[in-house]
């Protein structure tokens, strides 16, 4: 079976799939090998949702999610037997995404600073190693707790076991993403899933970059761009 990868996340964001559509896609990956054709009953998906979170989706929401996946090309060669029972082929993610060469993004991995030891009270190498490890673990624990608390205050609720991905980001990155969420929370039905994608794909920084471009954009620049496009059209 194919597992959910960063490629699936990228394609979901590019095609603005709703959280329910993403959830259905993830479930389908466990039911259909990519590239294979199977008969699927959408009611089975909703039974799984109910068992997992305690209550199912509205049937209209499930059918809408399936339609999104068909429109995006994730589900191809559809054949309907009833409103809920379909035969379709689950397209491979490698065929959905065109190979794009992107520069490798380097994440900040600054280690927490460790307080200097008092020269007047030297410690043995063993004690120093233990102290250093303890300080690092305590610092990471406090940092992780701060991130969880900040998310909770913003209405994004994670169990600690489900929020391990927060450890991959600095506190500043998490706080910026939370601010971005607060300004865009209207229409967000599943804050926890939305926020995870927002953080992993760095939406906050991208929006800040777009904002800076808009501030630098001038009327003359607009006219130059229009003139350039018209010249290209005329040359075709």
Please explain how this structure is put together.
By secondary structure, this protein is mainly alpha-helical. The chain contains 10 helices and 3 strands; from the N terminus they run H-H-E-H-H-E-E-H-H-H-H-H-H. It has helices at 6-14, 19-31, 42-53, 59-71, 93-96, 125-153, 171-183, 191-200, 203-216, 219-235; strands at 37-41, 75-80, 85-90. Strands 1-3-2 form a 3-stranded antiparallel β-sheet. Mean pLDDT is 80; it is low at 114-119.
| Beta strand count | 3
Helix tally? 10
Structural class: mainly alpha
Rounded Rg: 24 Å
Q: Beta-strand percentage?
A: 5-15%
| Largest sheet entry | 3 strands, antiparallel
Q: Care to give the gist of this entry?
A:
The protein is mostly helical and 236 residues long. The chain contains 10 helices and 3 strands. It is flat and about 55 Å long.
Q: Topology of this structure?
A:
Blueprint: H1 6-14, H2 19-31, E1 37-41, H3 42-53, H4 59-71, E2 75-80, E3 85-90, H5 93-96, H6 125-153, H7 171-183, H8 191-200, H9 203-216, H10 219-235
Antiparallel strand pairs: 1-3, 2-3
Helix pairs in contact: 2-4, 3-4, 6-7, 7-8
Protein traits:
3-stranded antiparallel β-sheet; mainly alpha; 236 residues; 10 helices; flat; 3 strands
């Amino acid at each position: 079976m194919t597992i959910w990868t960063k490629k699936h996340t990228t394609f979901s964001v590019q095609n603005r799939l709703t959280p329910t559509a993403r959830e259905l896609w993830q479930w389908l990956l466990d039911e259909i090998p990519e590239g294979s054709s199977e008969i699927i009953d959408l009611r089975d998906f909703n039974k799984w949702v109910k068992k997992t979170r305690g209550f199912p989706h509205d049937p209209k929401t499930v059918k809408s999610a399936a339609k999104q996946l068909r429109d995006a090309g994730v589900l191809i060669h559809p054949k309907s037997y009833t409103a809920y029972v379909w035969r379709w082929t689950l397209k491979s993610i490698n065929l959905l995404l065109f190979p794009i060469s992107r520069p490798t993004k380097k994440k900040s991995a600054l280690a927490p600073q460790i307080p200097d030891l008092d020269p007047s009270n030297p410690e043995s190498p063993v004690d120093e190693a233990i102290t250093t490890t303890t300080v690092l673990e305590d610092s990471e624990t406090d940092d992780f707790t701060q991130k969880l608390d900040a998310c909770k205050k913003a209405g994004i609720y994670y169990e600690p076991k489900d929020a391990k991905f927060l450890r991959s980001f600095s506190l500043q990155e998490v706080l910026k993403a939370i601010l971005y969420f607060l300004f865009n929370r209207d229409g967000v039905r599943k804050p926890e899933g939305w926020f995870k994608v927002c953080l992993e794909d760095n939406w906050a920084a991208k929006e800040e970059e777009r904002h800076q471009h808009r501030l630098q954009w001038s009327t003359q620049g607009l006219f130059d761009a229009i003139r350039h496009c018209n010249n290209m059209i005329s040359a075709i």
